[in-house]
Amino acid sequence: MITLYTFGPAFGLPDASPFVTKAEMLLKLAGLPYHARRGSLRRAPKGKLPYLDDMGRIVADSTMIRWHIEKTYHIDFDDGLGPAERGIAWAAEKLMEDHLYWAVARVRWLDQANFDKGPAQFFRSVPAPVRGLAERLVRYKVRKTLWGQGLGRHSEEELVALATKGVTSIADILGDKRYLMGDKPCGADATLFAFAGSLLCPVFDTPIRTAAEGHANLVAYMARMRAEFYPELAAAPVPQGVAA
After folding, report:
1. 58, 121, 148, 201: which has the highest count of C-beta atoms within 10 A?
2. CB 78 within 8 A of CB 88
3. Angle (deg, nearest 10), helices 128-149 and 101-109
C-alpha cells in the first residue's frame, strides 16, 4: 500500500498545500490504492510535503511522485497527447507551480487579514508565549524567499497584473474543454485542480481570486472536478477561515 504524507484538509480544500493535492490527484488518476497520513516537515526527506512511501521506497516532491508512478506502474498520464500538446500541458503546469503559487503565497502570508484567516491556523500548536515570535520568523522567511524568487520585488499592483495574466492564460488553454487538454484528464489536470482550488478558495479575499472568478470555465471546471474526485468536499460547506 502506498502512503502519502500530507498536511491535511484546510479551508474547504483537500489539503492546505496544492502540491499535496496534486500528488493525491495523480494517485486518483492512476487508480492506485493509497493511504493519506499527516506528515512532518522535520521527517520529510526534502523538508517539504508531500512525499510518499511506496512499500519502503520514499519519493519526495510532487513531480518526482508523478515520475515514480509513471515509471513504476507503467502509466502515461498524457496518453493520447501529441508532442505539442504535451509541451503545452507541461508549460501550464509549471506556470501554476512556479509563478501563480508564489503570487498566492504572498497575498496569504504577507497580507495581515489573509494571514489571520489562513496561515495563522498552522501555529495553533505553538505555545502561546512564543507563538508570535514563531509567526514573525516564518513570515520573514516567506518574505525573503519571495524576494529571492522575484515576485516579492514587485509592487502589489504589478503582482496582481502578473498573476491575472497567468490566470487568464490557464483559462484560455482550458477553453470549453472538459479537462485541460481534451475529453479526458492528463497529468496537468492534477495540478490545475489543485491550484485552481487554491486560487478560488473563498476563505481569502484577494484580487487574484477575483480574477479567477471572472473565468466561468475555471469555476465550472472546479465544480466538475470536485464532484468527480472529491464528492465529499463538493457536498460540504466551505469553512470560513478555520483549518480542518
Report:
1. 201
2. no
3. 140
H/E stretch holding 114 = helix 112-117
| 101: Cβ contacts below 8 Å, ≥ 6 apart | 18, 195, 198
Q: What is the mean pLDDT of each run of 10 residues along the chain (244 residues)?
A: 95 95 98 96 94 97 98 98 98 97 95 95 93 96 96 96 98 98 97 96 94 97 96 64 37
pLDDT value at position 242? Answer: 39
Q: What pLDDT does residue 241 have?
A: 42
Report the alpha-carbon distance of residue 17 to residue 5 in Å, rounded.
11
Report whether 193 contacts 21 (CB < 8 A): yes
Secondary structure in 3-state letters for 42-77:
CCCCCCCCCEEEECCEEEECHHHHHHHHHHHHCCCC
User: What distance lies between CA 23 and its chain's CA centroid?
Assistant: 9
Go through the domains of the chain in sequence order and give each one's CATH number.
2-73 (3.40.30.10), 83-230 (1.20.1050.10)
Tell me which long-range contacts 141-144 makes (C-beta under 8 A, separation of at least 24).
Answer: 142/105, 142/106, 142/109, 142/110, 143/109, 143/110
pLDDT of residue 232: 87
H helices, E strands: number in the chain: 11, 4
Structural contact between residues 90 and 134, judged by C-beta atoms closer than 8 angstroms? no
Cell of 192: 490545475
CB atoms closer than 10 angstroms to residue 53: 17
Global pTM reads: 0.92
